[in-house]
Write a structure and sequence with these properties.
- This protein has about 425 residues and is α/β, with parallel strands linked by helices.
- It folds into two domains: about 10-135, P-loop containing nucleotide triphosphate hydrolases (Rossmann fold); about 140-415, no CATH class.
- The chain is about 40% helix and about 15% strand.
- The chain contains 18 helices and 15 strands.
- Helix 3 packs across helix 4 and helix 9 crosses helix 15 (about 290-295).
C-alpha cells in the first residue's frame, strides 16, 4: 500500500516543536498512528491495543513511564485513563527543568485515539493547557491527487488563485464518493464490501461499547443506516427512532457517540441577532461517503451517480471536503454553518472567515444559474449593520470553469475544493 502525503503534516510538525504533548483524534482507520510514526520516527511507539502492555500500564502507570523514559507515541490512549495524571507530572517536570537550564522544551508525548467521551474528559482534567489537539479525518480529495495547496477552503480571491495553480479536474468523482476516504481503501484495491462490513463491526465492538454498551448490535447498525439515509437533512430523532426501533432518547445518545467519534458532523444553523425567525435544528452529515454508501446499500459508483440519492451524496462529499480542508489547516469546524429560516429558505453552507460571511450553495448540476443564489440576499442585514462583511457567494457545482454568474456570485467547479 502506497503512502499518501497528509496535508496537515507541516502544520503538525510545527506544533510539535511548541507543545510538550500533541493529541490526534478521529475515527478508526483514518491513519492517526501512521501519521505520527511517519513524522516522529525517533519516538518510541507503544500501542495499548496490546493487552500485555495495557495490563502493565493499568497495574502501575508510574513504573510504565520509568521503563519508557524517552519520547513516546502512545496509540489508543483512551484505554488508559490511569496514565494521564502521570503524563501531566512528566510534562511539568520537563517544563521546570528546561526553565532552570534555559533550554528549549521538547515534545514528550504524541498521543492518538478515537475521540471518545472519556478520552476528552481525561484530557481536559489532566492535560489542559499542556497539549495541542488535532481532529483527523480520512484522505481528502487533494491528498488523493497529491495537490500541495494546504489552504482551508474559502471562496475568495486568495484561495481560488492559489488553488487554481494545480489540477482542478475530477474525472473519477463518483468512484471517490463510493470508495470513501479510509487510507486502506484509497491506497489499495481492497474489497470494499468486506472492509466496511468489518469496519462497522469493529467500531461497534470497540468504540461504541467502550462508551455505551449496546446490547443489540443490529439495532445500532439500523440506526446508523437510518442516519446515513438522511445525510444532509435536518435531524428528526423521532423518525430515526421509529426506523431503528429504539427510543428517541437513545437516538440522541447514539448521535452524540457518532459525532464524538468523528463519524458524523452535526452542522449547526447560523444565528445572528440581525437575522430573524431562524430554525435551531442541526443538519447531519456523514464524513465518509464510502461508509454512507455501504450503510444505505448503494453498492457501485454507477448506482450512486444515476440513482435517486446522487444529489445527497454529492452534497455530503462537498461538505466533508470543506471540513477536511479546515481540519488539515489546523482549524476547527466551528465556523461552518448552514442557514434556514421559518419560511424554509435555505443556504447550504454559511462559512465565516476573518469577520467575513460567505454563502455557499451546493448543486450537482453542471449548469450553474444565478437563481441558485437567490437566498444569499437573506444575509444582507449582517453587512448592513457593520458587524461583519458579506463576501462573494459561491455555487459549487460540476461545471468545469471558474466564473462569475452574477455580481458577487461565483460558479466554482467542485475540483477547486
Amino acid at each position: 500500500m502506497n503512502w499518501i502525503n497528509r496535508t496537515i503534516t507541516e502544520h503538525l510538525i510545527n506544533v510539535i516543536e511548541d507543545f510538550p504533548a500533541v493529541l490526534i483524534t478521529g475515527p478508526r482507520q483514518v491513519g492517526k498512528s501512521s501519521l505520527l510514526r511517519k513524522i516522529a520516527a525517533d519516538f518510541e511507539y507503544i500501542t495499548f491495543d496490546n493487552p500485555l502492555v495495557l495490563k502493565q500500564v493499568k497495574d502501575d502507570p508510574e513504573l510504565f513511564l520509568i521503563n519508557h523514559p524517552d519520547q513516546l507515541i502512545l496509540d489508543e490512549i483512551q484505554y488508559v485513563p490511569e496514565l494521564f495524571p502521570y503524563l501531566k507530572i512528566k510534562i511539568d517536570e520537563m517544563r521546570f527543568e528546561t526553565l532552570e537550564q534555559k533550554d528549549k522544551r521538547k515534545c514528550l508525548f504524541l498521543l492518538s485515539g478515537s475521540q471518545a467521551y472519556h478520552l476528552m474528559q481525561n484530557v481536559s482534567e489532566s492535560l489542559a493547557g499542556r497539549l495541542a489537539i488535532f481532529p483527523l479525518q480520512g484522505i481528502s480529495y487533494r491528498e488523493q491527487k497529491n495537490i500541495s495547496c494546504a489552504l482551508p477552503f474559502v471562496p475568495n480571491d486568495d484561495y481560488l488563485v492559489a488553488r487554481g495553480r494545480e489540477s482542478t479536474t475530477i474525472e473519477d468523482l463518483w468512484s471517490m464518493i463510493h470508495r470513501g476516504y479510509m487510507p486502506s481503501q484509497v491506497a489499495s484495491q481492497n474489497d470494499w464490501e468486506t472492509f466496511y462490513s468489518s469496519y462497522v463491526s469493529t467500531y461497534i465492538e470497540r468504540d461504541v461499547n467502550y462508551i455505551n454498551n449496546v446490547t443489540d448490535k443490529g439495532q445500532f447498525v439500523r440506526f446508523m443506516a437510518a442516519l446515513a439515509a438522511r445525510s444532509g437533512e435536518l435531524i428528526n430523532y423521532d423518525s430515526i427512532a421509529k426506523e431503528a426501533e429504539v427510543s428517541a432518547s437513545t437516538v440522541r445518545r447514539w448521535v452524540q457517540i457518532l459525532e464524538t467519534s468523528g463519524i458524523i458532523l452535526q452542522l449547526r444553523p447560523y444565528h445572528n441577532n440581525h437575522l430573524k425567525r431562524m430554525i435551531k435544528t442541526p443538519k447531519i452529515y456523514f464524513l465518509d461517503t464510502g461508509l454512507m454508501a455501504w450503510l444505505t446499500r448503494w453498492l457501485t459508483p454507477q448506482t450512486i451517480q444515476f440513482g435517486a440519492k446522487a444529489g445527497q451524496f454529492f452534497e455530503t462529499w462537498v461538505v466533508s471536503e470543506i471540513v477536511k480542508s479546515q481540519l488539515n489547516a489546523g482549524k476547527s469546524t466551528h465556523d461552518i454553518y448552514f442557514y434556514r429560516d421559518a419560511e424554509q429558505r435555505e443556504i447550504d453552507i454559511v462559512l465565516e472567515a476573518n469577520r467575513t460571511i460567505y454563502p455557499i450553495e451546493i448543486k450537482m448540476s453542471a449548469k450553474p444559474d444565478k437563481k441558485m443564489a437567490r437566498a444569499f440576499k437573506l444575509l444582507s442585514p449582517i453587512a448592513e449593520t457593520g458587524d461583519m462583511e458579506l463576501g462573494d457567494g459561491a455555487i459549487i457545482n460540476q461545471y468545469p470553469d471558474l466564473m462569475y454568474i452574477a455580481e458577487g456570485v461565483r460558479s466554482i467547479p467542485v475540483g477547486y475544493l
